[in-house]
Write a structure and sequence with these properties.
Layout (H helix, E strand, L loop, with lengths): L1 H26 L6 H15 L10 H14 L2 H4 L4 H18 L7 H18 L6 H15 L2 H7 L3 H14 L6 H17 L5 H10 L4 H4 L1 H13 L1 H15 L8 H8 L9
Length: 273
Amino acid sequence: MAALANVDAVLREIEDELIVAGTNLLKLRFSSSCDEVIAHLLRAEAILKRVDQVKDSPIPTKKALIPIMTALIRDKLLKHRDENIQVIVASCLNQATRITAPQQPYMDDQMRDIFRLFMVVLRGHLSRLTGDNYDRAVKILHFMGLGRTVLIMMDLNIDQMIVDMFQFFFDTISPNYPPVIFQYMKDVMTLVIEESDEVSLELLTPLLDSVRTDNKNVSPVSWELGKVVFEKCSTKLQPYLKEAVKKMNLEVNDYAEIVFSLCTNENMVCLLT
């Protein structure tokens, strides 16, 4: 009984802190200083990390989330021009997406704005390799695969953003990154491909470009990333790859061996499990 009472007390504390943090964010003005905004956002970020997924939470906790959820999507935060504020807002929204998973936390148009912000944060901070904002960018990338957030992107009909994300991964990955970044990028791209109703030529193009033979020397990590994705998704990609090779009149010998194999072997299966 004592243990249960302690759990209830902790939950009530979290709910109270959620309400206070959300109320403070709602009170912010466009004229508020960046330091003030950041202080309130950091408090919101810290408490959101302590919240379990909504499906496992009691109704009072769900209600306590409303002020923070409402504040984060307002233009004064979502479209703030300060770089540090952008990253912390994105981190809070990443937590909100985790908490409400598998349901999306906002309306479609708002989710599109959120994913645009996520892409801004990934482009601006993933290559820094150190610091709090880098850690936040890594968590966003991680949850896109682990929490299947990228599937929400696919439902929003923002195909070009997903293509641009693939291209960004191949352009950015380098030996300087820790192996976990390679893993997260691979997870996200594999999930997109496997869950797509069909693989467009636009999506396939950056993947093919990454495994051109000459790219193996120019950008070996990018080449390896593309090769692994081809191998993991070989069954799904094979028919689209064959069509692309014919349509673009490509010479398969100019690409990694996996491309040649998929184009010449009807019974090709995934090389990796």
